[in-house]
Design a protein that fits this description.
309 residues, alpha+beta, 4 strands
């Protein structure tokens, strides 16, 4: 993105390019370690951004975009709806902006017609391929990018399916030549399973604002999902562990982590979860999801984790 590319250039001039690499690795690692919750759409979107962020980090070596898409993935993993890329954030030519703008408008239109609820996985694939196309269009201004064609063609494949299956008319698109196979070819996804994940793999993250233990609306959505999972399982216990970022003293953060764990416990009890099943504890800043130095206000580290026994 325009801002990020400028930032990366300045960073390299200052001799700190390695920090960008480490930051991107941390953000992608955080996404890789996140258990997605929320709707089928946000869960599939998490997986799409996980794949793309790892590609940007490990193959394309585009650390700034790896950070960006990893953070979109983490947001989606909490159940938040993240939108297709706004074009103003990217350094694009007028012709690129016109073509991408028309495509984005069509995608938003099928979303508004209900595709997210009716065809959640395919809708997530379409959004991820659109974002991939946008990123590739900006990159081509500096170097030829072989991924424009697959991202673009697979986006239009997914969009055509969405438009047809939501009974919307769409103008015909010109054929697009075949290209290298990234991302993987799209097939209609109709086999989503509502079966719960294995007990040992069920890890839910509830995020908090800085220096707060109040349950936000997004956090409540996660807690509602957890309550439903608890009701569908035969559990021996529920463990809630509060965490903080590295800003503040160890003692303060351990107490803040406990307040966060207790806030989640209270919210679950209000939903009918037996209080005697719940164990709370705090790690404070001892187990950071995204490793940082001291006194760093990192949003991904301000959380409570919920696991089952």
């Amino acid at each position: 993105m325009r801002f990020n590319k400028i930032l990366l250039t300045l960073t390299m001039v200052l001799g700190l390019a390695a920090c960008t690499n480490v930051s991107s690795l941390n953000d992608v690692t955080a996404l890789n370690n996140t258990q997605a919750v929320g709707s089928p759409f946000t869960r599939q979107l998490t997986e799409e951004y996980r794949t793309f962020a790892n590609f940007q980090l490990n193959q394309d070596k585009d650390y700034e975009d790896a950070i960006h898409f990893a953070r979109k993935g983490v947001a989606a993993a909490t159940g938040q709806i993240v939108m297709p890329e706004p074009l103003d954030d990217w350094d694009l030519t007028t012709s690129q902006t016109i073509e991408l703008g028309d495509a984005r408008a069509r995608l938003i239109h099928v979303f508004e017609m209900g595709s997210i609820a009716q065809l959640p996985e395919l809708s997530a694939v379409a959004q991820a391929r659109f974002d991939c196309w946008v990123e590739a269009e900006e990159e081509v201004l500096d170097n030829p990018n072989p991924y424009i064609i697959p991202c673009k063609s697979q986006f239009f494949d997914a969009l055509a399916q969405l438009e047809a299956r939501t009974q919307q008319l769409a103008p015909p698109m010109p054929p697009v030549a075949a290209a290298p196979a990234f991302p993987a070819p799209i097939e209609p996804v109709d086999n989503y399973s509502d079966q719960p994940v294995a007990l040992a793999d069920a890890v839910y993250l509830v995020f908090f604002d800085f220096d707060k233990s109040l349950i936000t609306s997004g956090a409540q959505d996660v807690i509602n999902t957890v309550s439903g999972e608890i009701n569908s399982r035969n559990l021996n216990g529920i463990n809630i562990v509060g965490h903080t970022d590295s800003s503040g003293s160890d003692a303060y953060n351990r107490a803040l982590g406990m307040r966060r764990a207790n806030a989640v416990r209270t919210a679950l009890v209000k939903l009918g979860v037996p209080a005697n099943m719940i164990t709370t504890s705090s790690k404070g800043e001892a187990e950071l999801l995204v490793p940082t130095g001291d006194n760093v206000k990192e949003p991904a580290n301000r959380r409570a984790t919920i696991t089952f026994e």
